[in-house]
Amino acid sequence: MTTEISTEISSPEAEPGAVLADITGMLLTLLDEYGLDAAEISRETTFHGDLELESIDLVTLSGALRERYGDRVNFADFIADLELDEIIELTIGQLVDHVVASLRATERS
Known about the structure:
Order of helices and strands: HHHHH
Number of helices: 5
Helix content: 55-70%
Number of strands: 0
Shape: globular
Strand content: under 5%
Structural class: mainly alpha
């Protein structure tokens, strides 16, 4: 009896910890422009409630994501699928999960 084991190897770039670190860096750069460089950022941090980011800040973040990951991650499409209250409550962890899923999907293709 032969059992086939499927091991999906993803690049370090597609690991949640690496993506969280990337996004944290992007956010700290953005917050530094407002003089808020001491923000604590975790997966549970919300963009609106905790970081007080506005829609224009999300546009800036979208540009940073595109610069870092190219067309493999489409933040605008991700946000477009959400209701307004979901956008207001959006957490860093949800974005990390979206980025990881997008990166892994492009690795498989």
